[in-house]
Each structure stands twice: as structure tokens, then as C-alpha cells.
Amino acid sequence: PQVDVSDDKVTARLPTGESVEVLLHGATVISWKSGSKGNTENLWLSEAAVLDGSKPVRGGVPVVFPVFGPPPKSGHPTSSLPQHGFARNSRWEYLGKSSTESTGDNTSENSIKLDFGLYSSALSDTFRKAWPYDFGVVYSVTLGKDSLQTMMNVRNEGKEGFEFQVLLHTYLRVKDISKCQITGLAGTTYTDKVLDAKDHSSTSPNLSITGEVDRVYKSIKQSITSVQEDGKPRFDVVRDNLEDTVVWNPWIEKAKGMSDFKPDDGYKNMLCVEVGAVDGWQKLEGGESWEGGQIMKSLL
Ligand code: BG6
């Protein structure tokens, strides 16, 4: 595998053409290509996404940490952080690569892992003041033939315990949202943030997106959420030590209201399936660490 490191991003490519691009800003994966010669883009990235580090990226896989959504109004250690925390607003460090390579015909075993780090010492003064814990996060992005694995390893490097939430805010690219169905969430309780911010129970085995959707599915029993397009499997999203999944599509009006969301009808080509631990808090005592993440499979 080939890896290019520039000032602001790291790009890796397998001999068979698959590739991944990770911006150091937020350790945001902004492109993941697979398929024959690596010419299928699996992630949606807004044409107006801001990539210079002045704003979180609209698209790709932003990392949400240590709080999901608007933080609790007051009285919680995350209360003065911005929506979705500081990870997507901070510059991460590229820690290096490791690869498995096979020669000959068995190219399906090729993979490359890129590691990124974020430490309390590297945070801006504002974020460090707002969340004054000593921590280290290593985020590992592994590109395989038809898969992308993204894993978070959070370590409490201080003496005092802290609580956090984490979420991988993946914008999957689809051809036509009206032809997509999501499976693997049946029988799960979800909070519907569009309707009433209250809990509901899903009974139907499939979910179709026909308008704005913003749901937090909690304590999911199945470990795979699948997306089908036109009746054919398109993506599998496999959770690892994460129990929750947010399904989000802003639809017409909300998309128009976001200055960094372009084109206006881009909502037809994206579907956010965001795995995470966002119902309640993960607690880490001093010296402890926690790991969780996802494997996404492109099934074309
Ligand atoms: C989702 C939330 O995870 O992210 C939505 O559930 C939110 O409520 C969306 O609108 C996008 O958030 P942001 O901060 O990137 O505009």
C-alpha cells in the first residue's frame, strides 16, 4: 500500500486501487473509494464543506467526542463545549501506518491502517479550559478491499475520572435516497428528535427515508445495520462495542439552511448512519481506557 502525507491530510491506496483520505482537521475521513479500480466513492462530502480547519467538515466521517449533540445545558462537565464536542474541531496528529501485504493473487488480504492521535495537551486553550481532563485518543482507520474500519481508543491519562460520549458521524453516499431501505434496527427504542424528542418503538423491519429524519436508536441488539439501494445490498455497518446508532437526513428545508451543505438537493445522495455510545455516558477512571468503533462494508 502507498501512503502520502501532506500538511493537512493523509491518503492511502491499496495496490488494487481502493483508497482513503483523512484530513488532520478532526481526523475526518473525507473520501473512501472501493470497487473495481477504486472508482466508487462511498462517502458523501458537501461541495461547500469547509476543509481549512475553521469549521467541522460537512460530510465524510466526522468524529464526535466527548459529547453528542448539544451538551447538557448546565451542570455537566461538557456543558461549555460546542455541539458534538471538540474532536471534529481540533487538529489531530498523524501517528503512522501499519500494513498487511500479500503478494501474488491474494490481494484481498491487503490492508493499511492509519493512526491518528488527539491529546489534551494539543487542544486549544478554550477547549482545554472547557474540558480540563488529561486524555489521549487514538483513532485508527483501516482500509481493506471492500471495507473501512474506524476505531476509537480513549484513555484517561489523569487521576480524576471523566464521562464521555462518542459517535462516528458517517455520511454514506447513495444514488437516490428514495430507493434506500435501512434494516437491522427493528425492535429498537429510538428518540425521535424531529417529532417530539420522545422515545418510540420501531416495529417495521425496514426504514425508508421520506422526509427529515433524526433518530437516536438505543441499545440495539443486532450488531449490523444494513443499507439497501434499489433492493440490493449497498452497505453493512457493523458496530464494535457501541450500542447506539443515529439515522439522520436533513431533507429539503434543513439542507437549505446549512451554509456548508451543497448542492441544495445533496440530501438525496446522502444518508447518515452514525454508530456511537450516546445514550447516557461512558465512564473512565484514571488510567483506564475504552475502545469502540465500526467496520463499514461496501457491498457493490
Ligand atoms: C446528527 C444529529 O448526529 O447531527 C442532528 O442527530 C444534527 O440533530 C446533525 O442536526 C448535524 O449536526 P451538525 O452540528 O454537524 O450540523
What characterizes the major β-sheet?
9 strands, antiparallel
Proportion in helices: under 10%
Tally of strands:
22
Number of helices: 2
Low-confidence segments, ≥5 residues, pLDDT <50? none
| Known CATH architecture | Distorted Sandwich
Distance between the termini: 22 Å
SSE run: EEEEEEEEHEEEEEEEEEEEEHEE
**Number of separate domains:** 1
The unique ligands bound to this protein are: 6-O-phosphono-beta-D-glucopyranose
Mean pLDDT: 96
Kindly name the structural category. mainly beta
What is the CATH fold-level name? Beta-galactosidase, Chain A, domain 5
Q: Globular, elongated, flat, extended or rod-shaped: what is the shape?
A: globular
Structural features, described:
It is a single chain. The chain has helices at 125-130, 251-257, and strands spanning 2-5, 9-13, 19-23, 28-34, 40-41, 63-64, 93-100, 111-119, 135-143, 147-156, 162-168, 171-173, 180-183, 189-192, 198-201, 206-208, 213-218, 224-229, 232-240, 244-249, 270-284, 289-298. The protein has 300 residues and is mainly beta. The chain has a single domain, classed as Beta-galactosidase, Chain A, domain 5 (Distorted Sandwich). The strands form 3 sheets. The chain has a 9-stranded antiparallel sheet with strand order 7-8-9-10-22-19-18-13-16, with no helix packed on it. The two termini are 22 Å apart. 6-O-phosphono-beta-D-glucopyranose binds next to strand 20.
